[in-house]
Write a structure and sequence with these properties.
Layout: E1 2-6, H1 13-18, E2 23-26, H2 27-30, H3 33-45, E3 50-53, H4 59-64, E4 70-75, H5 79-89, H6 92-95, H7 98-113, E5 119-122
Parallel strand pairs: 1-3, 1-4, 2-3, 4-5
Length: about 130
């Protein structure tokens, strides 16, 4: 089974996926989207449950996974919590242009809100705010 874990930068995608019972396919650990997709497909081919982490499915991911049994999960995390998480983890690529990282979250959130993908919503961090 493929679980595509989506959400804004700093929303807790990796944290949540690592708490599940399966293989985690994480761009941050693999290093390229192409290699991540290949890794996910290889692990799925071995009958494993894979948690594929992406902010929002790219066209390449959608194409590669189009005929597979899959579920989409959205990490419902408010912007202020994402910002806090980004700062707390201190990943260098997020700080090269911090304003751009935050603007990317606006774009990701907008894609989610206008998406026709049926997401299961996970509230990893307690909040009263809902999308």
């Amino acid at each position: 089974m493929l679980i595509i874990v989506c959400g804004m930068i700093g929303s807790g995608k990796s944290t949540w996926a690592k708490q599940q019972n399966g293989i985690v396919s994480d761009f941050d650990e693999i290093g390229s989207k192409e290699k991540q997709i290949d890794f996910t497909l290889t692990e799925l081919g071995q009958g494993k449950t894979v948690y594929h982490i992406t902010c929002y499915p790219t066209s390449g991911e959608q194409s590669a996974f189009c005929n597979l049994d899959k579920k989409y999960v959205w990490m419902n995390t408010i912007m202020s919590q994402c910002r806090y998480n980004i700062l707390a983890r201190g990943r260098q690529r997020d700080f090269i242009n911090f304003d751009e990282t935050l603007a990317s979250n606006e774009v990701i959130n907008s894609k989610y809100k206008s998406s026709n993908i049926k997401f299961e919503v996970v509230n990893l961090f307690e909040t009263n705010e809902r999308w």
